[in-house]
Every structure is written in structure tokens, then in C-alpha cells.
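Expect chain and fold; see below:
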Amino acid sequence: MKRIYKIFATIAVLLCGMSPLLPVRGQSTGLPNSTIPNGMGINIFFTTPQTGEMQMIHDGGFRWVRKDFDWASTETSPGVYNFSAYDPLFTSLGTYGMRALLILDYTNPLYDNNQFPTSPTAVNAFANWARAAVAHFQGKGVMWELWNEPDGSGISADEFANLATTVGAAIKGTYPNELYVGPALAGFDGWGAFNLPWITTTIQDGVLNYWDAITVHPYRQVAPDDPTGDYVVNDYARLSTAISQFKSGVPILAGEFGYSTNWTGFDVNKTAKYVSRFWLTNYSYGIPLQMTFDWADGCTDPYNSGCNFSIVYNGYQNPTQPYLTKPAYQAAQTLNNQLGGYSFSSRLSQGTSNDWVLAFSNGSSTRYAAWDLNGADDAVTIPASANAAVTVTNYTGTWVGHFTAGATGGFYMGLTDEPEYVVVTGAANSPSAPTRLAASPGNTNAILSWTGSSGATYNIYRGTAAGSEATTAIATGISTTSYTNTGLTNGTSYFYKVAAVSASSTSSQSNEASAIPNGIIESTSVALTSSSVSNNNASITATVTYKNMTSSSLTLLNAGIAARDSSNNNKDFGYTGNVTLTPNQTVTISKTRTFTSSDASGAYTVFGAYETSDTVWHNISSPTLNLTVTPTPPSAPTGVGAAPNNAQITVYWAPIVGATTYNVYRGTAAGGESATPIATGITTSAYTNAGLTNGTTYYYKVAEVNAGGTSAMSSEATTTPYTPIVESTALALDKYTVSRNGGTVTGTVTLQNVSGSSITLSNIDIAARDQSNGNRDFGGPGTTTLAPGQTVTVSQIRYFTTSDPTGNWTVFLSYQTTDTVWHTLLPTLGLTVTN
């Protein structure tokens, strides 16, 4: 795909003193194996990640990044190379055991007038530069890819093959084990014909003597998995057939693909759903590496489709939450959480090609991903033993539910067009293991508490060393979720586990908890001045009294009140240090804590805690107090805008950290929004309002909703849906490379009014943007009226001068309607401007 928005890192070139890279821990150098998520990757535009950014990419389930490796910025003098700008990237990748696909790409003003290298001097210079790059990063698990979409940039197959084979000989002749691939084929694009002659010519010219795999960009604006439509598997199969005529067993890699929320009919939810199905379909075909486009939005322009492919929103936040996520990020994370460690094994036959049920295996364990193409709620049967327990999770991680397979086996479920992950476990009657077991010490006793299973009783197991619990329970038939083990020896460590028991079976054991009885008790349990508190800088006080029940003095290094939020994060009230208690003496400790917006709302557990002189911490887990932290009342959303389309408007706003949902309100006059929202429960930061009347102006406001209530309405956004104008003959240029020293380029396009009424366009413009997004338009005619079905052909010549910047430009058609709104038509074209 021609990238509408492209970032080229500004790289400071130091001609000496390049520092060596840190070693990559446990790094592999071959193609990734089929185990999820080893073959999952993401396209990025940075070389120095923000704090926490690479961890967030890793935690999303990605193990590869794809990045331009720029010739011009790393060889600024002939034969002098400096790759140090990329070293921070590899330091960060090494920390998380990740790998990079680096694109050997683009021109260099030192050679062939900054055009694609074709002369022997330029080709050899490029090959020498590539070999030097491989030498610098040798053994770091890099996959080197030659160029990006050359077949869509006016580069002939023979010229490209000459460069590819020369580079291949330079790399493989010295470093035969380093991975070398290409050509990032754009002809796979859903906007153009499959360019079989181009890739066939390069293969005939010998590229497969060097390439370890063929890379393609299988973009499309439809579902990837519809066998009656633009089916990506068919495209892979055609390419595989063409390759196999020359060499068998050459892998196909999906180097770049994704969906833009800017495309008609798409939003953040649909892009997440389609890209999830793309990932799963790629796994089913055996694609070893798939690189989603892209990581973070390059800009905030809702009309620029190149800015709206990403899986997180534009704008770094902080080291803990580097970026606000889109549903596609949750989808990637969920795929990894549900299928991590598993590999595709088979597609189950369900009687219709619309129904997808994929099996993934890990040893003897099998999990499933299931969906249909049209959301028709088709029914399928998932393999399961009789009465087996089944858990279903949707593609963004939302828990659908726990279910039970049939008495004779099999789990019957209805499919939607959203992938769902199905995990089949043991017998349904087996209770879940207890969780959050805690043990607190007392005087010759230990008090246990845990989270249990409905309808179960419990067995208690004890030992005097970690992991040494006896197989015979010290107590059985416990019907509550707490137990006091008496008759213990003060100063001795005791370790405990708990199992749940049902009528038919016993669960696995819980986590382990330990306590050292020491004679300190709560003579007055923890008390709070209130059972609830707002996290809007409100304060609450906790008080507890400890007593020494032994016959000798005891010193507590710290004594106070602890607290944990619902995610078990430490939210302690505080402690008093160096407290010495004589026999039977008490101490009362009171601590006040202020809760702020950084404290999550929800249920908190408050309990006593102290540290004895042996530096061991003891939690008084029974009794505990529950504290409810209420959220700060929400604030009104900002950055609200409205983007028109045919009979629909997309309202968007800046996402708010901590928001639960949003409401959207509409009116047909300024300030006239109804008090009743037209949409509620929106979980993303955009909403498409369909079924509108073209030519009518609509007004919108948005409110945030969370547990603290509903915010005031936002500022107002307004726009008017329009009747579409289409390119009946797509925009074309007479050349795609031009010199800025007097060169010219002619752009031609035919527009058609496909509506049932006349449309007046205030301006028609063949627009252009340089690589810094500067306006470099060709121009076009002014007021033009088109009757229904009427066409108009626009042909515009642009003259280039030295004031025009060199580099990769984007050219596209835009027009202005009588309401002064500009509209952009896709696709876009790439134009290279040289000296």
C-alpha cells in the first residue's frame, strides 16, 4: 500500500565512535516457528522507543517489529556508514527477546541522482551498504527485506531483480545464515490486479537464489476470509503456485496489512474484528510471519487514512500506560492470551464455507477460534467430552461465559462475525481451585481466608516448608471461606494450601500462603471513619490496636494498616516504625490516607499488617474491612469533531483514561441537542451515525459515563452529510518520478455524480502532500455542477522547481462542496521528487 503518512526519522550521523549493541538474550535467527505468538509483528516508525513502549508492544502479543532502514541517512559520504541511530531499537528489542524486520530501502542523493539505483556504481554501492548493515547487526535475529512495494512505484522487474541479486550475493556470500527476503509486493493489494508477471520476471531473473521468503502486502477493504469475495487465501495460493514453478517450499510472509478507520463503513471496532480474522486466517494458511500496519497513529487527522490504521491512539501518555489502546490492541492481546503456546492444527468442517472453526494444539491440549462471515448465528459443534467445562471469550477479551458440554459430548454454540475463543477443560462438576489464600499469624494460631467456589466445601493442607504440605488434610468439610488453625508453636513457619470439594471430585490446590505465629494479635480490629471515600482528593482514617500476648517483650519494626485494591495493588494507609511491646501491652495506631485520581475506584480490602524483628511481614487477614472507593465525577470529552460521508456522520473525540462508556447527543440546530442520547454504551472514541439526510446539517455533543455518573456535554461539533462523487476513471499520473529542476507531471481523473440529484462542487483539486505533509497541490477547476450520472474529466499539469522538496509525495483527488467542506477520495498515488 502507498502509505499516506510516512515518518522518516531524523538521524544524527556520527562518523566515528559507534557504540556496540547489547547482546540479544535468547535470540533466534531463523524464520519464526508456528507457535503463537512467535510470528506476530507490527510496523513501527521509531528507532528510539518511549519509556514503556516496547514492553507495551510485547505485552500486546507482538514479537517482531518492521521498520524502514534508510540508505540516505546512514551513508552520507560514499562508503562511510553509521548505523548507530538504530542501536537503541535493538537494545530495547533485546530486553524483550523480540526481533526486527528491517527494510533496505529508498534512494541516496550520492548515487543516480537520488533515484532507484540502476547504474553499476549505484547498485554496487547499495549492496556494499546492505552488507555493512548486516555485519553491524549480525546475530541479532534481523530479517532483511529489500525495498517496499517496488512493483507499485514504477520500478521495472528486471531493474529490481538486478539490485536484488547483487544485494543477495553481497549478503549471502558473507553471511549465509542471515535472513534476506523481498520484495514487499504491492501488487497483492485489493486496489489493483495481482501483479503476477512482475514477480514472475524477478523470479526468472534469479532472486530465489538468495531470498529466504517472498513478502507481500495483502491489503483489501473487505473481509479477508470470504471465499466468494476477495479471499486472501486464494491470493496466497495463486502466488504459491507461481513460485513453485521455479522453486518449491518458499514461504510467503505477510509483511504489511491492516484496515483504516477512515475507509467507508469502517470504525475502530470493525477494523479490530477484521484484523483479528486476518490474523487467524493467516495462521490457518501457514503464514510464518505477519506484520500488522501499524503501531501508533502518525497524526490526528480523521480524513487521512494513513493515520488511522494503527492499534493505539496518537500521543504518548506515560511510562505505565504509554498509549491509549484501540480495540485492535485488545484483540492482539486476547489472541496471545487465549492461543499463546499453541499452533494451528486444522480447520473443522462445519458444512458451509461461511463458518470458520479453527483448532490450535499444544501437546494434548486443543483450543478453538470460531466465527462466521455474516453474523448469521450459524450453529456449530465444538469437540468436547461429556459434561466438559467450556469457557468462551470474545476477540477483545470480554468474557462470554462458562458453559457445560452436552451429556453425550460436544459443545453446541452459535457463531457471530466476531471471533470467539473456546477453551474446553475437565468435567464440568469439578470445582475451581480456591484463590487468594491468605494466612495471618496470631498467638499460637494462624488464621486463613480465601476466595471459594459456589456450593463447595474445603480441605486444608499444611506443611512446615514451602511446597511441603502433607497429602492428608488437617481439616475437611469446611463450609466457610476461613479457618483458624490452633495449637501452633510461636516462631515456627507454617505453610498452607486449600482445595475445594464437590459431590464428585476435588479441585486442584490453591496458591500457597504462610504465617509465623508470634503472639501479636489485634485486640481491637481495624476500624475506618467511613466505609466509602471518593478518589477526588478525599481522606479517610484507619485505626487498629495490637497486643503482645506472650510473656516477653516483642519489637515490631513496622506496625500499621495495609490496603489492597481489586487488582491486589498495594494501597497501604501507612506504618509506625520500631514499636516495642512488653507482655500484655497494647499500641493503637491511626493512619490517614488521601485518595486521588491515581487510585482506582472499586472495592478495597483493609487489614492490619506488621513486620517482626526477623524482617518477616505478617498480614492480619481475618477479620478484614471492605472499603469502597468511588470515582471522581467524569469530565466532559474534548477534541470533539464530526466527519461527513454519504448519509452518515462519524463523531469522534479524544479518549479519556478511566472512562467506562460515552453517550452521543444530536440536534438539527446549534445548541439544540436532545437531552436523550441517540447512542449510549459506546466504548470507543468514535461513533458513526447512519441513516441521515444528505444536505441536512447536524449538531452533536458527547458525554463521558463512569461509575461516578454522567459528565456535562462536550463542546458542539457540526457537519453536513453529502452525496458522493466517485472517480469513474481513477486518478493517474503520466509519470511517478520527476525532477524538481523544471520537470512536469500531469494528473488526470474523471469524476461522476452517482446520486439522483445535481451536485455543485465549489472546487476540484488534484492535491499533493510532500513527506512533511506540506501542501503541494496541482490545482484544478473552480465551480462545477454535475447532473445525475454526469462526468467531468480534470487534467492538470504541475511544474516543479527547486523550491519543491525532494522525497516521496502523496497525490490524491479532493473536492469542495458548497458547504465549504473538503472531501478526499481514495486511493492515493505515490510520486518521487528528485533533484
